[in-house]
Structure formats: structure tokens, C-alpha cells
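Structure ticket #2291
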Amino acid sequence: MATVTITQITDSLQQQLNISAQGGRDKWSTATDNQKQPDIEYHPDRAKWKARTARRLEADPSLPDTALPEGFPQKLDSPLVWEGKDWKDEKEWVYQLKAAEIKEIGDAVKHFHGLDKPLGFISPSTFPLPTLGPVLSSIARELHTGRGFSVLRGIPVTSYSRADNILIYAGVSSYVGGLRGLQDKNGGVLAHIKDLSRTHPAESIGAPAYTTDRQVFHTDAGDIISLFALETAAEGGVSKISSSWRVYNDLAQNRHDLIDTLSKPWPFDGFGGDPPYTTRPLLFHVDGKIVIQYARRLFTGFQGLPRSRDIPSITEAQAEALDTLHFLAEKYALHLDFQKGDIQYINNLSIFHARDGFRDDADHTRHLLRLWLRNEELAWSLPEALEPNWKRLYYSVTPEEQRFPLEAEIRSASKGGVKY
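Resolution: structure written out below.
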């Protein structure tokens, strides 16, 4: 993709969003005149899910016999199809750094400092890792054509300042994905995942990432999601991942109707923005690959960002589909032993992620850093509906404009307190 200006991206994205929103209003207006939001919240309720499923199947027993959407496969066969029980030893996905590689990272830190460049210029050419680099490149291939996840273990966090840990994280990760995605409209390409409920009022927090609450299964934005553990919690906070391709196979075997529901447009809450909502599917089939992209809170709201009034409600079928995605992901999940100094990489186009609730104490305050990465050489073809957002993420800021905050802050898309 060619580099474009921020203004071009903004104008193009806004135009497409306005068209999508208007089309969504036209399409949904009649269907939602007498429709109210189903009884569904951010935290999935297994009893409600089972009851809703039973009601819908009793009303129409033929639902599972619905035809698959045109072109969608009956079954996916790939290393990306796995279950948590398939993995017996974490050595299969954890790469433990060797002493020489840790020294190489330290030398790269010194090298970059000697260049006197802004952090946005971190790349393999400015952060040289002659021995570790090929290992990281193999991790990138594993994410795109293998199991879809890997963990790099052993960054000596306590040996470096916060600024240098960020430098190390960005430098090492540049070998996995050379493009860093925009996570905040102020140019932020790095995010902090940390409990801010003790320092910020509840109504200012609109996403569970800034609480000790559990996060349900979801995807972020971008190709590769990476998390770097600066510190772990005193208790809880288990990181969980699940193959969305395994979830798809379950649906393709048992509930064709839910695949059909997921592949049609849904109303994504803009939380008071302009437009107030947009529409797109959650599930796509592109270039022989299945892609599921969604976050549950965009249909249910969360804490300081309750679901907006006067936008289309989701349907009972969509409510069941949301819960089914979560509980199937939970069924097939792998629990990761996320340790201090670990960097986790997952293919966001084929893997859901979640975390358990947690408790901090004076000595252990869970604190993760997050990057949204893209490897242009290995990147998958994107569904057309996702392309505008990907262009904004990866091609709208220059290296000089990239921002790497040292402290945790709530990104603009997750700030609560919106007036309705």
C-alpha cells in the first residue's frame, strides 16, 4: 500500500463511514421500529445463553439446517485449527532468550540511542539483532502460516528504565511486524493495559482493559496483537487465547444459521460519535481464510460507555451468536502462563483473546504494554469492509508523529462519560 496523508485517510474513512451509517439506518429502520435490545450484557451469562438457544430452536427447529453463506467452507483444515488440550508443553510456543541474545538486545539499545532518532524510527535497520532477528522472523511466519501464536520469554525488565523497556519492545517487535498500528488519535502507537480504577472515576472508563475486571473473548484491531508484561498481578489475570478457526468449525458442524447471522451486517456502536453507528459483518471469508473481527462491548456497552440510545438494537439471533462465540472460545481455549518479561504475539485475524479478573497488591501491579503490528510481506488479504480502518491504523502517521507514552492513559476510543 502506498503512503497517504492523514487528511486523505481521514476524509476517505469518514466518507465511507457516513455511507455505511446511512445505509445501516435505511436498512435497519423498519426492522428496529418495534425491536428492543435483547437481555444481554458485557459479561456473558451461560444460563441466559442456553435459554435463548433453546427458545430459538424450539421456535424454529430448522435453524441448524440453514445453508452456509455462498463460498463459506464446511470445514477448515489448517494448523490454525487447534484446541487448548492439543498443547501439552509450553516449550512448543515459548522461545526462551539465551544470554547472548539478551546481550544483543542491550547492544541494540545502545546503538539506537547513538542514532539520536525519535522512537518512531525503530526498525530492524536501527535496532540490529543479527542473531535474534532470524528467530523473530520465524515467529512472524508461525503467526501467519502456523499455529498463530508465540511467546518470547526472558526480557530483563528490571535491568532497564521504562523508556528503554519500551524501546526494547518496539525494537524486538519490529522484526515480527514492521508497521505499528495507531491506537489513539493523538498519534499513540503504544498502549498501556493497567487497572486505572483507583485513580480514575468509573464513569471515565469505557473498556475493561483499564480495570481488574475480566475481559471476555474478543479481537483487537490489526493483524498481530502483541503484549509485553512489565509486571504481573498478585493473583489472577490469566491470559487466554482460542482459535477462531476451531470455533468456526464447531458452528459449521452444528449451527449454520449462526454463521449466516455473523456474516451479515451488525450495528457497531459509535458511543456518541459521528456517525452514531456503523454497520459491517463480524465474519468474513477472504482468499480461502476465515476472519472474525469483533469486540463484545461495541454491542453491549461497558461501564462508562453504556450502549447508546436511538441506534439499532441487535437481534435475538445476534445475541445468541455473541454468546456462542464466547462460550465456544472458552471451551477450546489455551491458558498461557504469562510471566514478567514475556512478549506474547498472536494472529488477531485467527485467534480470540481474553483474560481473567485479577488482584494487585503493593508489590505486584499488573502492567502490560500493547502494540498492533503488521508484517507487509506475510499479511493476509483483508475483507473490503476492514480496509479503511487498516489504512488508518497503519498508514496515517509518519515515524515523527508516532507517540510512545511512558505512563498508562485511557485511549480516546475507550474514554467513558459520553452524554446520551
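Closing remark: Residues 6-32 form the longest helix (27 residues).
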